[in-house]
């Protein structure tokens, strides 16, 4: 038995360098998703339409996308995101965003040989560390809240360890609530740690950004068709850990569904069942008739109509269908 113990010890001592926490791909699947839309304004005189739909981003190792719209839309920039813009005239317009998406799940694994991770560009790092109206982590109220709850980085704490500690704090203190009018400004959410998926992710992201760790919300829909009472809308998130990459987190799912003692079922785990439509809230769209307009979420379609008359009798409808590729 002593000899066996010496052999095991030698194996541990001789383990090659480079073994650490790493994101390991799991399952991969390809789906076809369709976001249909239809709007009409029968009482508007000589109407012209600006319709905007998300253009799902490519995410290295996680989401590969082929997408198009009909009618054909122009791809335009919207505060760091690409969106489709469709312009039309007439009493109404209908069409769809068609997507073929390859989704790859990942899992954060300890004791795995870490592969080379491409770093962020200066522009990417600045974007995902920025303070905004919702990510208001530079406010005195938010900084005081962080200090009182010991949410600042500790000496020697790496990005993953910090993210895990912040995640567990919000998971254990958090409560899920969704109402028609949500205040998702992080300093306001922090008062009670109560919000919906978007608000809880913004709270987590604000703490990470305040600690110098890039974070982005993943705004989209589950890779399942909508039902009459479920639009499949959701917001996840991910933070960028040096030498590891983008680590996935899902705060609202953790608050609602994880009853395990460890509480990390939704930390560092992405099963590849979610379609990201854009990064972060506060998407600014350049409308032709009304100038820049900022919306928090673009998980479906938005539109503006210009003309005379009245909006009485106007209708807007949307559909979301998802099928396995080939079906």
Descriptive terms for the model:
globular, four-stranded antiparallel sheet, disordered N terminus, 7 helices, C8orf32 fold, 2 domains, about 325 residues, alpha+beta
Brief digest:
The protein is an alpha+beta fold and 327 residues long. The protein is built from seven helices and 17 strands. It starts with a helix and ends with a strand.
Give the biggest beta sheet. Answer: 5 strands, antiparallel
Secondary structure class reads alpha+beta
Overall pLDDT score: 92
> What sort of overall outline do the alpha carbons produce when their principal axes are compared?
globular
Helix run count: 7
Note the run of SSEs as H and E. Answer: HEEEEEEHHHEHEHEEEHEEEEEE
The number of distinct structural domains comes to 2
Query: What is the helix content?
Result: 10-25%
Q: Just name the CATH architecture of the largest domain.
A: Roll
pLDDT below 50 for ≥5 consecutive residues: which ranges?
1-17
Description of the molecule:
This protein is of the alpha+beta class and 327 residues long. The chain has two domains: 124 residues, no CATH class; 155 residues, C8orf32 fold (Roll). 20% of the residues lie in helices and 43% in strands. It is built from seven helices and 17 strands. The strands form five sheets. Strands 1, 3, 6, 12 and 17 form a five-stranded antiparallel sheet that branches. A hairpin with a 3-residue loop joins β10 and β11. α4 crosses α7. The radius of gyration is 22 Å and the shape is globular. It starts with a helix and ends with a strand. 38% of the residues are buried.
């Amino acid at each position: 038995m002593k000899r066996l113990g010496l052999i095991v010890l030698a194996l541990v001592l001789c383990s090659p360098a480079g073994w650490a926490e790493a994101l390991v791909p799991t399952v991969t699947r390809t789906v076809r998703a369709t976001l249909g839309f239809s709007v009409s304004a029968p009482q508007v005189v000589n109407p012209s339409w600006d319709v905007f739909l998300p253009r799902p981003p490519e995410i290295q190792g996680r989401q590969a996308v082929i997408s198009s719209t009909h009618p054909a839309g122009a791809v335009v920039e919207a505060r760091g995101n690409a969106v489709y813009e469709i312009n039309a005239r007439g009493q109404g317009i209908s069409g769809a965003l068609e997507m073929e998406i390859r989704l790859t799940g990942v899992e954060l694994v300890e004791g795995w040989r870490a592969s080379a991770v491409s770093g962020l560009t200066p522009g990417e790092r600045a974007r995902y560390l920025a303070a905004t109206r919702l990510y208001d982590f530079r406010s005195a109220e938010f900084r005081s809240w962080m200090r009182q709850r010991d949410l600042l980085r500790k000496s020697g704490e790496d990005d993953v360890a910090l993210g895990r500690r912040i995640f567990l704090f919000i998971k254990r203190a958090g409560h899920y609530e969704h109402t028609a009018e949500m205040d998702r400004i992080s300093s306001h959410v922090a008062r009670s740690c109560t919000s919906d998926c978007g608000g809880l992710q913004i709270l987590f992201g604000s703490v990470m950004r305040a600690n110098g760790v890039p974070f982005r919300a993943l705004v989209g829909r589950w890779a399942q068709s909508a039902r009459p009472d479920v639009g499949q809308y959701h917001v996840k998130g991910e933070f960028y850990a040096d030498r590891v990459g983008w680590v996935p987190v899902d705060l609202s799912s953790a608050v609602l569904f994880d009853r395990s003692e460890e509480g990390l079922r939704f930390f560092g785990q992405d099963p590849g069942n979610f379609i990201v439509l854009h990064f972060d809230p506060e998407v600014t769209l350049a409308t032709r008739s009304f100038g820049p307009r900022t919306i928090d979420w673009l998980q479906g379609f938005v539109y503006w109509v210009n003309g005379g008359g009245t909006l009485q009798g106007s209708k807007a409808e949307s559909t979301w269908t998802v099928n396995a590729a080939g079906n």
